[in-house]
Batch of 2 targets.
Target 1
Amino acid sequence: MSKHYIVVSSDCHAGLHCEQYRPYLDPSVMDEFDQYVAERHNHRRMQMEMNADYIEQWEKENELGLTGAWDPVQRDKELDHDGVAGEVVFADADAVTGQESPPFGAGLAAGRITDPRLAYAGARAHNRWLAEFCAANPVRRAGIALVPVTHDVQRAVEEVQWAAQQPGIRGVMIPTMWHTNKPYNDRSYDPFWAACAESGMVVHTHSGEADFANYNDNLGVYVHEVPFFTHRPMFHLLLSGAFERFPKLKFVVTEAGAYWASDLLWKSDINFGGGHTMKKMAAKIKGTLSKLPSEYFGVNCFIGASTMSKEELRRRYSIGIDCTMWGTDYPHPEGTWPHTRDRLKKDFAHLPVDDTALLLGENAIRCYNMDRDALQAIADRVGPTPEELGQDPNYFSDPAEVKAGRWWIAEYDCHM
Amino acid sequence: MSKHYIVVSSDCHAGLHCEQYRPYLDPSVMDEFDQYVAERHNHRRMQMEMNADYIEQWEKENELGLTGAWDPVQRDKELDHDGVAGEVVFADADAVTGQESPPFGAGLAAGRITDPRLAYAGARAHNRWLAEFCAANPVRRAGIALVPVTHDVQRAVEEVQWAAQQPGIRGVMIPTMWHTNKPYNDRSYDPFWAACAESGMVVHTHSGEADFANYNDNLGVYVHEVPFFTHRPMFHLLLSGAFERFPKLKFVVTEAGAYWASDLLWKSDINFGGGHTMKKMAAKIKGTLSKLPSEYFGVNCFIGASTMSKEELRRRYSIGIDCTMWGTDYPHPEGTWPHTRDRLKKDFAHLPVDDTALLLGENAIRCYNMDRDALQAIADRVGPTPEELGQDPNYFSDPAEVKAGRWWIAEYDCHM
């Protein structure tokens, strides 16, 4: 009998209904909180006016399952049903009408908060709740605390140190956009990266915010640009040598796809290690990094690729078979829940079993330092087998093919 | 005997030494001009301090050829030598020490000028000179005038109307970055797009500026991001329906590579025409465009791909065989001059002859509405033949293969 795959969803969401955050909130911001709750209700009304049929159908069909957003017992049932052993838990569980959002929008669009006091108050409220939530089953959870580092680096360091003490919290999410604060390549953030590296807290950006001020509410432009702005911080760190200064630092870009890595790693490796196209610049760039940019992937840089496209699976060796992590996006409607098993059968049937194991769980276990044995015990009960996915259990990857995925290294003779 | 390819370089540069712009400049800005010239000399001194060996060797080896930056007779000799019949002519001929830059930096980094008066004065000086320069041989030149539209839309309209009257001026370049001015998806620019569409002036962004304020002088981050910021304006127009409102408008992104089109067109086509991944958003996005985003390429959107990489040539059908234009980047050292013939042999030997004709010249002739017969007469004298490039003159493209390049249209059943 084949072993069951340990599936770790690299992209899930949990959170209270906005009003329920009240007991977790610092009393000094209650007036602003009442305003925020009213604004959230108004937001739902507007969504219902535009899209009532779709919203009502989604919420009715998934009524019980959606309570897993805040109920850890129901949540584990949903994970079991989907074949998922462990999960990475971000904020903002309600992607349809935005009701389960941390106070003041401190979740996926945290950069939009302009008042540092509210930014930290909202983050703290969610983090206090998240710590309780993850403590109910810390083996299955890698909770991601909210840390609005752009507003206050020292306070961010303290939040990281607190988060690292909480069972089941394994990372932090920073604002995607730094706005008028310092860019993430700035050395003033170094105490924060140091604290994350030392405590093993994995740093994240997650799709949500982008350069809204320049979109005139044009959703097409937003959707077009959001991947760039989401992966931008990781490249600012990488290309300014942050992973040289903090070799244990890990950074994950979540739900922004993975396809962009193919070209950005090609281009980055050439720029830093394939000098002949860049005569003028090579001299100035060299010295920042000790390895090719692509060589930091799978060590420091990871991609929470969520529900990967077939093209991303085909490109898995150029994106990186050791850095890419599949995810369900539960309980968001654009994800695979509650039909994850069907989707896995559809997309993974023709993949080698070792690649499948890495993409579905092993990369995440390594990235988040999760308890593999405890997860395997859960997977033995709920996880899919190669046979269930329609795979040939004797089909393994060809090392030459894996190496050829990063075709540019040979074609440009890239080296440092 | 095979016909000679008409090579039109989609990316060349010309300009006076900065001091020589004086007679073309409005007298009201002479004080600022003296400061600018002094700053340019200082810039050269700094470059020499860092990189003297390289600069001296480059300038010595190419002394005569570099005078083609401003001497149209020498320039034609350089084009002949390289096998190039026609060319698209941008500002900023000296990419090594920045001496041949329009006043106040009105060329490739025009967005950095904060004073609208200087922005237009610098642009006007270069445009007056460029009109003379192109008039010396308008068949071979597609001169690109400078138009800092972000500062003043009405004045930009007037500049477009003037430029359209000049023999050999066939387009305008706008600032890559709009900074605190309106983004290019804003309807306030519509009179400018209308003027360009009506007069046949092709709009350009050209690699140069990026989000400098956020780089801390980190060249690695700059090089990483400059393609995004260069193609960003074209997508703001495309995705906000500008090519629906102005069907004759053409936009070219120059010297920012072409590779990014593969993934951005895949993603854009899905977002607008492959609804099933985007249930929540599809309803809001649809209606802006009447065609898939990729279908505007080759009609409204073109890519001045400069010295294409082998990978970009391999991907020519996904990038778009009807929208991609090769270029030498003469007289910049990162280009192919004075070894263009060797580079063409190296890169095009195994390509079909019809694809080669499109990439090397026919797409540019169509985009810029150049005089094909007159260019063919020049090409018959200087242009490479398929045999010279080592090609099989009977090797033509396979229509099924061309269609398969945009693989996502079938895989996602994309349609509007």
Note: The longest helix of chain A spans residues 30-61.
Target 2
Amino acid sequence: MTESIPSNLVLFTANNTWMLVSTILVFIMHLGFASLEVGLTRAKNTVNILFKNVSILSIGIITYALCGFNLMYPGEFSFGSFVGFGGFGINQPEGAAGLVAYADGAYTYFTDFIFQAMFAATAATIVSGAVAERIKLSSFLIFSLIYVAIIYPIAGSWDWGKGWLDQMGFYDFAGSTLVHSVGGWAALVGAYILGPRIGKYSKKGIIPIMGHSMPLASIGVFLLWFGWYGFNGGSVLSADPGPVSFVFVTTTLSAAAGVMGAMTLSWSLSKKPDLSMVLNGSLAGLVGITAGADVISPMNALIVGYIAGLLVVSSVLFFDRLRIDDPVGAISVHLTCGIWGTLAVGIFSSDHSLFTQFVGVMSYGLFCAISSLVIFLSIKKLFGLRVSEEEEISGLDLGEHDMEAYSGFQIFTVE
Amino acid sequence: MTESIPSNLVLFTANNTWMLVSTILVFIMHLGFASLEVGLTRAKNTVNILFKNVSILSIGIITYALCGFNLMYPGEFSFGSFVGFGGFGINQPEGAAGLVAYADGAYTYFTDFIFQAMFAATAATIVSGAVAERIKLSSFLIFSLIYVAIIYPIAGSWDWGKGWLDQMGFYDFAGSTLVHSVGGWAALVGAYILGPRIGKYSKKGIIPIMGHSMPLASIGVFLLWFGWYGFNGGSVLSADPGPVSFVFVTTTLSAAAGVMGAMTLSWSLSKKPDLSMVLNGSLAGLVGITAGADVISPMNALIVGYIAGLLVVSSVLFFDRLRIDDPVGAISVHLTCGIWGTLAVGIFSSDHSLFTQFVGVMSYGLFCAISSLVIFLSIKKLFGLRVSEEEEISGLDLGEHDMEAYSGFQIFTVE
Amino acid sequence: MTESIPSNLVLFTANNTWMLVSTILVFIMHLGFASLEVGLTRAKNTVNILFKNVSILSIGIITYALCGFNLMYPGEFSFGSFVGFGGFGINQPEGAAGLVAYADGAYTYFTDFIFQAMFAATAATIVSGAVAERIKLSSFLIFSLIYVAIIYPIAGSWDWGKGWLDQMGFYDFAGSTLVHSVGGWAALVGAYILGPRIGKYSKKGIIPIMGHSMPLASIGVFLLWFGWYGFNGGSVLSADPGPVSFVFVTTTLSAAAGVMGAMTLSWSLSKKPDLSMVLNGSLAGLVGITAGADVISPMNALIVGYIAGLLVVSSVLFFDRLRIDDPVGAISVHLTCGIWGTLAVGIFSSDHSLFTQFVGVMSYGLFCAISSLVIFLSIKKLFGLRVSEEEEISGLDLGEHDMEAYSGFQIFTVE
């Protein structure tokens, strides 16, 4: 041990370590999504959902390595700040041997890739919840592949890749729009094209289809909240104590306030404390603060989260009225609150324009809604999108996988 | 990248990062508590318990932001080192822009707050287990709110806030007393006032009420052990390699020894290896070492943990004899072993007086027992404390929430 | 705050913190193993498996503190680089007061111990899965104790303790052989000696025995993947940004490719997407890259993982043909892919010899297979190894523990 270690190298080490810890935290969010989705749906579709989630994660990571990363961070844009591409595979910057400092010394090239790769698969996973219990496995995997490989990175490049929206001043700190709404729009389109699950809407009205395991749903939500400290905290892109701890506080307060918002509204509407609403309330608060976690004050974060909690409950009721069947409330959590969070930056931060935020929200909405419409309809035409009625009734676990999730347990599969 | 970064700023970054990682670890303990409590109780009360745990966490964090933090770390005391208050809301120290170094450069103001906030909700969560399956949801939430907002911070200020017990030399490193006993006393009082669950004690003796999911209980214990590395490791209040790694070793050895202690005693008493006793044994070891994790040697940590494991088994049997019904063994884990751990500091560390430790234990006991008695009795008078007999028998999930935790599963709800 | 903090002390702090975070991540792998094993076996043996896993962890840690650590890192060898012993208990290096820099300043003595202790129990846990649902609890605990106390550390010393295989140039970065194969060989021997579970193989052929909870199995796999970032990332033995981020990328890509490998092969063989194969595929990819995570390029990591995914599916079918009953596929994941990963270093890294890797694989195979044969047969002779037929049919939970895992649930325990 000598005295000659430069202190900026040490800071580089500390920053890089935090980014890698954040990567791990975002990774475990995929277990959170899987648990939540499984918990809020029926036992007969459990294997199918777990299979989807493990597959998406793997397909997403590989796809992002092969082309997504270089579409999202193209270096240079080829088509007027709208699309750029840096080449196939992970390409270490020359002269750096692929391992040395990168991005202002905060972390390595490989850290950059792996942190972003964990984000990428998230967008597709969000879709998964809204189309659950009726979509064909292979069709969904094809959709995810295309969405993660092409749509998510191009959309992402507009802001985080220094594209046209970034140049315009649009601000989305950790992805209320770039991740959550991008997933949310596809969720909306997918749920709409697929139509509702059999039995959900009848002439008599809306018939709730209960999830089969509230402990799994709760485990999912706690893990998502847990991982969000990496999602938002890592988006500081360094371990800088001020901003990272600030982001921790706003993220936590917004999540907690989301719980309170969802609790007060749902309790007053239904006269019963509704666990699934409260769980979605915390996610609503988290999605809501994600765009502005570094620029919204702690006390305003309470307001952002509380409103997100009110919005998620209202939104779930609204989409149910429209008869758009979203088994886990993914559209309400990720799209509705993603939009809210993005606009909240314009409202609560004096440095950002509400109008620009609105332009960003609309641009992403148009691009993602149209893209997913085209992809979903093409897949529907080519391969079909929905399982057969018999399969849906007996469950996708038997139909698609010939396997039960809870072998030995007495379960009523007929609704 | 220049050479001019001061190395103390880099150390500040490393320390702050560790404190934030610890914060996340303490956060996930709340999932641990929820899983453990759910697993050790009956399926018919699952939604209720999950709802309580999500709510307490959120209420606890918001309450702590609004007033608890400034009661616990008042800066200056108003009433002779017994109570002080620094004002409502989170108040960034002036001149520091709320983001710069604080507390000897180890971490920021916001890191301090968020780490402490995660601790605060723990005390109320401990109570939750002991009063489970029969307490009214709203009454419990009111109790938690008051306990986290006022009692926990005032009690905490006596030692960690540099109050009278700290001045007297009382030592509680990470909270065997300040967190675990503070929760444990309220758990004891709550369980006593509520009375046992229907059917637990009959003329024929004690009728065990089995938990409905040992996997959930085990997940809970593993997550608690996992999070304890942040609870104890973060209580070093820096990333100083010596103390933090020392604390990791004592914490781990005590937990492992707690398992062995509970295993040997329960196996020899009942002639069967009892999983729930072994799970509580690891928690006993963790609570037991928490007060002295930085001052008790690794080999003595084995002794502390082993004795904690013996104590938790004896204590569970003892309280069952007294017909104080504690569905998850929270009183035995957190109160009995919290007292043991606090006294163990006086026994195994030559720097601390057993007498002073004893005075601390008794003072906290008096304050917390009386406070919770007053709060619980007031709530009982004003709103009632216990659900109706019919509701208890059919389960709080249906009674309080009109919802089942395991929709579709065939479950026997009648005991 | 003064300017006088040496920057190498700060680097020491950053490195040590990362090693402790890795320790926590390896710790939670034990919950991963427990969940996976429980999920892939029958409900009637759940308590038994959980009890085993909690116990092994505790026994493993204590044993490793008392003698394993000093067998594995003996300082000096007593018997020609084959066996050495540094004395009983954890012995802090003199003059360092047990808390100062150690091992080139990367981490403290206590960090070294606790990181290695978490690894040690893993080897025994691997065995647990292969012998599940029929081994006597006490006999298994005795086996684990001996294996962790003596066999694992001696085997480990050959490479990581600077023994004869290290001197020969054998390379195993994080333990494809030293941990996974060492566990895998004992798993093979144990499963062989015990014989298959009743009903698994009949004259009509192989009768699959389904696991009782695919959500638990999936939680297990995600947690194992999560913890592997500490297992592999921590094996860099510092927070050096280049190597650690490189290891993150190879580890992730191999895991994802393992999923794809298992998916393609199993889907094409059985015409159905098989969740348990896909789950084991990710573990296969992780075990496969573990030996060479720091020397195999990201694109080659995809190949290593994909082949591991193919291998795990083939291996499961192969051992089933041999009528060696491995309820969770532990032999295929840890032994088959452990061997593959170790050889892959010789294939994909020009710095290492395939022949030497092969010698290492064979040496560990001989030593571990013979050792476990001797231990298992001795235990069988002295105490018996397998539960009675009646107990196996009614389940080990009732037979060994007089307890049910899912009290209140309607479960079919007769196959």
Note: Chain B touches chain C through 67 residues (CB under 8 Å).
